[in-house]
Amino acid sequence: MNTASIKDYIKFLRKKNNLTQQQVAESLLISPQAVSKWERGESLPDISSLRELADLLNTTVEEILAGGEKDITKEDVLKMITSFVDDNIFEFIFSDFLQATDVSELEIPLDVFFVLNDKQKSILTDAFLDLGGYANHLDKIIHYFNFEQQLLIIEKLLKDNDFYAIEKLLPFLMPNVKEVIADYFLEKENLEQLENVMPFLTSEQKLDLIEKIIFKKISSDKIENLLPFFNKSQRETLESYINMNS
Fold first, then answer.
1. Which of 24, 45, 112, 190 could bridge 185 with an S-S bond, Cβ 3.0-4.6 Å?
2. Euclidean distance between the first and final Cα of the chain, in Å?
3. Looking only at Cα atoms, what is the longest distance across the chain?
């Protein structure tokens, strides 16, 4: 992370927006000395004020951390952002999650998951899933998580029988996670919920699903409502199975 370019860019944007250090400080509820340190390169905004600073300066968090460089790649920005959250900052974030009992009590915005590395995300996800109301916010942050983290979240929702929350997440989940959900509902023979997953499965996943239906010997009357979600060849296979078992 190029601290020199960041400090210069913050100062440039502040002046561009006709703001004094005092005005920036008052808007962010911090001291003018803190703003001065940013612009001298002696410190950087912490994660709790970085987004507010970006909004105030009419820019983005990514542009601030890139020091205003336009030719920087997304990969470079991501590396800078994730390296920005050191152990001390993460401890502050984690403490906020541990002290809360409901998502509404958090002082740290949930977008913080974007700036965490995978290890930090996994730790914070465990704390997040213990909070009341967590399911109501998942659709806004689910795309920040890797396969294992998404799977952990889905397993929690399945355990809680929160099928509505799962349905809201389906467009944003990784393909393999969607397959896990489909397998779960098939195993439980909850084909009503399986119908909600079907539009989000790949053709290959649907072929695998047909094999599992036949292997489990699901009764033909239960799978008729699934037929419209398969292509012609797949439907013929299922219809043949239905005819053999009717």
1. 190
2. 66
3. 79
Residue 115 half-sphere exposure, CB side, CA atoms within 13 Å?
A: 23
The answer to whether residues 96 and 108 touch, using CB atoms and an 8 Å cutoff, is yes
Domains of the chain (ranges; CATH) run 3-84 (1.10.260.40), 85-152 (no CATH), 174-246 (no CATH)
- Exposed (0-12), middle (13-18) or buried (19+): which is 15, by Cβ within 10 Å? exposed
pLDDT in tens, 26-74: 998 888 888 998 898 877 777 667 778 989 999 887 788 777 776 666 5
For the CA atoms of 13, 14, 17, 21, what is the dihedral angle to 10 degrees? 180
Instruction: Identify the sign of the CA torsion 78, 81, 84, 90.
Output: negative
Alpha carbons 75 and 110: distance in angstroms, whole number: 22
* Cβ density class 148-182: b for 16+ within 10 Å, e for less: ebbbebbebbbeeebbebbeebbebbeeebbbbbb
Residue 241: CB atoms within 10 Å: 17
